[in-house]
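Example record

One chain of 551 residues, shown exactly as stored in the release files.
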Amino acid sequence: MNGVTISFDKSRTYINLMLNPSEFTSEVDIREIKKQLESGETKRIYVSEKALKSACDTANHYFKTGDGTIVQERIGERKNAEVEFRVPDDGMHANLVLTTPYGGKLPALSTIKSLAIKNRVIRGVSTKKIESMLSNARRAEPGTVLEETIAKGLPAKNGKNSKFIPLVPNALERVLKPQADDGERVDMRNLGEIICVKVNTPVLRRTAPTQGRSGFDVKGNKLPAVAGEWVDFKMGSGTVVSDDDANLLMSAISGMPKYRDQIMNIDDTFICNGVNVGTGHVNYEGAVLVNGDVTEKMQIKAAGDVTINGFVESAHIEAGGDIIITEGAMGKVNDSQGEFQCKLVASGSIHVQHGQGIDIQCGGNITVGRQLAYSRLRCGGAVIVGQIDKPMGNLFACDIISQDRVEAGTLGAVSGSTLKVDFSPGFNQLLERKDSLDELLRQIRENNLKHKEKIALIQGKKIPKELRHKAAEALELFNNESALLEWLENKANDVKSAKESYQSDIKLIANKRLYPGVSAKLNNRNWRSEREYDRAQIHYDAHQWHYEPLI
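Predicted structure tokens for this chain:
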């Protein structure tokens, strides 16, 4: 282009543009100059759009007016890379911000490390991350801003409080883990001895709290850990702390151990060889262990666990803990009144090896060893028929209300006998709690907002000395109300999470086969099998029941 000269200064750092309007044949085109700058040595050098436009506009004006004044302008320069470190207030990480150079120099790894130390980024620096950024910077366009975390601190790991380790298993745990014979095979009939501990037997050990591990931030400051605390024994009935070891709990009486909610109880145990017309009914303020059968129309009521090493026929059994029947249970059903002659009622869980014609009610899980049929079940947990790790038992012709999964090998029967599972009651209880909490939360939120405005109004005014204590009382009440509001919001979130978990947990699982006549219900959402399925799972999602084959 005539009249256009682009040159470097003596240090070859800056680009100078000289425009001579007297040599122009036409107005200078800024696009042509840019095109020339984008080739050769000036290709990667920073060019100021503003300076370039100003020079071109001035030269074009001189050209149009016939003025031959030469326009000289510094329009560009070499720029080295820019390095910046960003460290948040907590100092737990540091970001490197690297702006790539315009024809200038890129810093070496050692330079960046030195700059990091100057910026108090001392610990947790990753050489690999820096090298990776430098590699990317060499390939990037000039002026590209790269940012990456190149240093991380180590958060302190607080110590754990002391833990409790039961030294004897609960009866139900023992039953659900069949004991192995001398060989590798497991004998399903050998359910292990039911443990009754003697006086001065170690039953619970307390472990020492851990000290934790200290950490550091990227500035090199040490972050101390909070040591765990000793947790006191929650003394259950029938236990005492050992004289020789303050971390060991001993049995003070002979009885059946029961560990629940970090409390070990030794239930005073009534032991008999059977319950029949000869022994009479059993009503005991402790645990009951029956090494024999319970015959027709007999009753057992216990405050603790009831363990029966035998068969139960048309009896009534109530327990404040678990009910464990190592053999079967069977009863007659009065068809006209729908009454079951065999009833099992427990606050905890219920286990029976096999059953037919029984009414089961419990707050925990119902586990069945082999098969359950023609029965009514109400539980606050799951219904599992078969071994716990892989249920392969049979469940059919039952009416079930459950709050967790129902799992067996086969659900239903070839005959098409109905198996009804209703998950609604537990879900409706959660909905009622949620609605009550939401309504209470709405009212307190409205009140808290009004009170916040009043407090702000009071604090914005000058309060007479004699009324200051009243203002302080009002502020304290407002703070208490705000704390209550926060607590309720956390509770509402917990209930919301419980509702979502409930819907994801409820399901029917058939590990071998699912027959026609099996139905699942959650309020007005129903599913019923109209044909035979191989291994299948029926689960609830997005307000609908879904069938899914198990592979």
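Notes: Confidence is low (pLDDT under 50) at residues 181-192.
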